[in-house]
Write a structure and sequence with these properties.
Helices cover about 65% and strands about 0% of the residues. It has about 120 residues and is mainly alpha-helical. The protein has 2 domains: about 55 residues; about 45 residues. The longest helix is centred in the first third of the chain and has 14 residues.
Amino acid sequence: MPKPELLTMSNKELDRLSVLQRVMEKQLTQVKASSQLGVTPRQLRRWIQAYRTDGAKALISKKRGNPSNRAYAASIKADVIRLIKAHYHDFGPTLIAEKLTEKHGIQLSRETLRQWLMC
């Protein structure tokens, strides 16, 4: 049975793990491994150190499951969707963006609105 942290790893992280294991077994040099992974040798050494102390879970992204720093708050999205349904239900995203800026002082890109309208 695989370890639980291996089940949550992405393919990229699993590749990283296999390369690190080959480096630690002296089957691959750090320089070749870093170029294979597309990182600097220093970053590879950081990963090796983290792997030695915390195991495979050290290679899993710490940002996974967290919202983007650039994401709009859910309350803003809900308010905008409510406004669109009440006033602009038959408009396209470009015109909605213009009307929200003009009449409500809410400035959003048309692409953001398009994505929100698809949900």
